[in-house]
């Protein structure tokens, strides 16, 4: 009986590993070329499969892109949010999250191209919905930290938290665009602390002169 279950278990693990390798290959390839030009033939070649074998793991390109978007969403939020959760003070948590996000992108330059590419596509495909949902969750996290900072009296109570959350994400997106323009996205990590200091100047609680 155990010998009958063993091959099935190995087969399942092999399939899962192949799917994971495919997703990571797509993220890597998106760093080298426009995601819209990425074909299943190129993806299959990258991981050493035929197109037919690739479609055994993903029935169509849409399901592959959905898996990639889901992987990106899980990896990004887990790594970035966990960096914030290590700090009790909201302003420190916001900075840690900002730097972790930029570092994550610098090591995987295909991710911003992929996310922006999905948002620009017409319609409302599953991958696009995942990207939108991820960004909405991210904004809520920033707003929650800003609200906590107001309670802790380290962030000015007059701040527009919704606008600040948009500016927070916009600063990261601006860094990414600049990195793509310069052709050196890995240099973003050096610039990130300076950019965050400029952003944080807008929400710091002014000193009490009394």
Describe this structure in words.
- Residues 16-76 form the HTH tetR-type domain.
- Keywords: DNA-binding, Transcription, Transcription regulation.
- Residues 39-58 bind DNA.
- One of its GO terms (molecular function) is transcription cis-regulatory region binding.
- The chain has 210 residues and is an all-alpha fold.
- The chain has helices at residues 2-30, 40-47, 51-57, 61-85, 90-107, 110-120, 126-151, 161-182, 188-200.
- The longest helix has 29 residues, at 2-30.
- 28% of the residues are buried.
Explain the layout of strands and helices.
Blueprint: H1 2-30, H2 40-47, H3 51-57, H4 61-85, H5 90-107, H6 110-120, H7 126-151, H8 161-182, H9 188-200
Give me some keywords for this one.
76% helix; transcription; Tetracycline Repressor, domain 2; mainly alpha; DNA-binding transcription factor activity; elongated; transcription regulation; 9 helices; single chain; 210 residues; DNA-binding
Q: In summary, what is this structure?
A:
This protein is mainly α. It has helices spanning 2-30, 40-47, 51-57, 61-85, 90-107, 110-120, 126-151, 161-182, 188-200. It has a domain at 68-204: Tetracycline Repressor, domain 2 (Orthogonal Bundle).
The major beta sheet can be summarized as: none
According to DSSP, the number of beta strands is: 0
Distance between the termini: 79 Å
Number of helical segments with 4 or more residues: 9
- Mean pLDDT score: 86
Look at the structure and give the CATH class of the domain at 68-204.
Mainly Alpha
Order of helices and strands: HHHHHHHHH
Quick one: overall form?
elongated
GO molecular function: DNA-binding transcription factor activity; transcription cis-regulatory region binding
Protein name: TetR/AcrR family transcriptional regulator
DNA-binding region: 39-58
InterPro entries: Homeodomain-like_sf, HTH-type_TetR-like_transc_reg, HTH_TetR, Tet_transcr_reg_TetR-rel_C_sf
């Amino acid at each position: 009986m155990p010998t009958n279950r063993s091959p099935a278990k190995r087969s399942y693990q092999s399939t899962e590993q192949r799917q994971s390798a495919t997703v990571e290959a797509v993220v890597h390839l998106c760093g080298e070329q426009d995601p819209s030009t990425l074909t299943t033939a190129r993806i299959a070649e990258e991981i050493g499969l035929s197109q037919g074998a690739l479609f055994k793991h993903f029935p169509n390109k849409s399901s592959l892109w959905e898996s990639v978007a889901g992987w990106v969403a899980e990896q990004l939020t887990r790594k970035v949010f966990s960096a914030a959760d290590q700090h009790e003070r909201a302003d420190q948590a916001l900075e840690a999250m900002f730097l972790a996000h930029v570092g994550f992108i610098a090591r995987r330059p295909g991710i911003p191209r992929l996310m922006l590419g999905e948002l620009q596509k017409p319609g409302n495909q599953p991958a696009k919905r995942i990207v939108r949902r991820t960004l909405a969750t991210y904004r809520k996290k920033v707003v929650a930290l800003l609200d906590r900072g107001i309670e802790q009296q380290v962030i000015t109570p007059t701040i527009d938290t919704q606008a600040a959350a948009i500016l927070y994400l916009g600063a990261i997106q601006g860094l990414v665009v600049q990195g793509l323009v310069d052709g050196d996205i890995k240099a973003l990590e050096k610039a990130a602390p300076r950019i965050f200091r400029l952003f944080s100047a807008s929400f710091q609680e002014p000193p009490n002169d009394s």
